[in-house]
Amino acid sequence: MPSPRPDLGPKPRLGYTQSRIERAAELRPDDAAIARLAAQPNAGAYVIGGDLIVIKKGAPLNEPLFTLGEARALGAAGETVFLGLLKDAARFGYGLQPAEAETLKSRDDLHVTDLRSIAVQGLVDPEHLPPIAEAKAVLHWHLRDQFCANCGAPTQTVQAGWRRDCAACKAEHFPRTDPVVIMLATSGEQCMLGRSPRFLPTMWSCLAGFIEPGEAIEDAVRRETREEAGITCGRVTYFHSQPWPFPSSLMIGCHAEALTHDIVVDRAELEDARWFSKAEVETMLARRHPQGLTTPPPVAIAHHIIRAWVEGEFGFD
Ligand SMILES: [Zn+2]
What we know:
Elements: H1 31-39, E1 44-49, E2 52-56, E3 65-66, H2 68-74, E4 80-86, E5 89-95, H3 98-103, E6 110-114, H4 115-120, H5 129-144, E7 155-158, E8 163-166, E9 172-173, E10 178-187, E11 190-195, E12 207-210, H6 217-229, E13 233-244, E14 249-258, E15 272-277, H7 278-285, H8 301-310
Parallel strand pairs: 1-5, 10-14
Antiparallel strand pairs: 1-2, 1-3, 2-6, 4-5, 7-8, 8-9, 10-11, 10-12, 11-15, 13-14
């Protein structure tokens, strides 16, 4: 018999999703329109230097949005990316050199930290997380892709930060997104969780891996589960996706039906993997596991994939 649906309270928000910003991609080629929007007093910018996000200290929440004038006073922009419109107010990503952002750590009025800390600790209103993720991913691409992959010549930014063109060979380069499958293999009332050596000692999570060229999502789920844990999977269902700007992934969340039971851990990828009962996972989600074991925090899609299964939303029986 399946266990009764547990009461885990209201569903938390999935981090970096549900952006309120309309990307307004049709404005990107229009330099004059972008300049007009940037000159409006309601324009705002998120200031990012590599992995570091610059926010203004405040209480109870910090303020991540700067005027463009304030942003320029912090340092010269490497690139400025038009993120879109919040109603009629333009939003930009303002890219500092990482070393420049590092020096701002000494300022008393600023908090300069990484996006994971901001998201997990709730340092800003969650509505800012999607545009910060958008800005961070595109600005990271600018930092890393300044030369043409086709001929090696320097490229120039066009389309309000959304394309780099090569004048020498005419190639057009676009910001990349790397698809990653992240899945929970289940078998009846059990699911398999794994541990990366990078995790906190008490944390267990879904397995994950990059989709390879020429590979379907379902096949990547089956391959990664077999490679990392030796489990063969059958049916795969899609759950949700999540931008994961570390630096530019798209997490594709799935549930997978495990057809075999014996786990063979790939120690190059995982520290450990084992089966958990639904009842044990419920205590981990609720943070009342007797040994203090946990799932990832609600900002991560793994939390939601695991919770959906515990709550009986998914199963293959
Ligand atoms: Zn070129």
